[in-house]
Amino acid sequence: MKTSDFDYDLPEELIAQKPAAERDGCRMLVMDRATGALEDRIFRDIADYLRPGDLLIANETRVMPARLLGAKRGTGGAAEVFLLRQHGTPLENRSALWEVLVRPGKRLKPGTGAVVDFTDAAGNVALSAEIVDWAAPSSQSASTDGAQKGERIARLTTQLPSLDEALHAVGHTPLPPYIKDYSGDEELYQTVYSRRESSAAAPTAGLHFTPELIASLRERHVRWETVELEVGLDTFRIVDEDDPERHVIHTEYYTVPQRTVDAVTETRERGGRVIAVGTTSVRSLESAWDAESGVLASREREATSLYILPGYQFHVVDALVTNFHVPRSTLMMLVSAFSTRERIMAAYRHAVEERYRMLSFGDAMFIR
After folding, report:
1. Could you give phi then psi for residue 231, rounded to 5 degrees?
2. Which residue segment(s) compose the domain that 56 sits in?
3. Any stretches that span the bilayer, and where are they (predicted)?
4. Which of 32, 55, 271, 355 is the most buried (most CB within 10 A)?
5. Do 244 and 314 share a domain, yes or no?
């Protein structure tokens, strides 16, 4: 197995730069995971493939306003701070340490007293970020220099009543790097069922669901439950190593509540299928599988670095709603493991030939 086995030709013009006009009106490629048979449908047609007693499980995380554009204090030079994850516990309601990416990195080094100020719509400084340290090495992004691709620790402070208020006054919803100059409604990069802001990127397979579609599925006795996985930027990384098994996958935090565990158990007992909405839901559910006891267990914000490659045995998930993924990514490997590499690559060739819209704002795939 080679990383190049998961590569495919992705024409740049097929990378969707904006959402579909209707969330559930996008195209959907349906694939039989056992035979590779394909059907071209519309996403709302997913109701035709679901049966009473099936269970959909989605990642309800919400994208943070993690992209902060400001000016370096003292020079006024433009600077960007991108929030990755909170570091430790909040210092107080108006101060906290965060692991961040910064730009320009050469001018925002720890130990130099570098501070970036961010202004609200009225031009007032609502938030400041002092760069205080390098982020410690971790499996998030291995590096030999201890700096982890330039990740820093920043102390965020505000004079507003809370950091949350300050972030919403100055922050922007981050979009993947392959989406250029999108100026539409940032809420369209959020799922309609999202709740707690904890991710740097959206669980994009869920973007196609509408409240009306979810309600209609429930009326058909298709159950709906959720998990939470805090999606990091490394989800967009391609695998650099020729041998994918040498790749060190990123760590993310996930939660599987007891109600979801109970729903999976009941679904299994009644002969229904567990259908994951997105690869992040897959990773959450499969990470929560207790191999020793042979059951799914509830989890509360536990770390996972589960790396799913072809040959992996799925314990919880029977079918998968997903988007089309970046070539040579761990997500291409995961969906290949859910069927076979050959069938997935054939499906992707079909999608390209039929001019499907690809990646985060793009069309959907249902592997059943």
Report:
1. -75, 130
2. 3-63+184-367
3. none
4. 55
5. yes
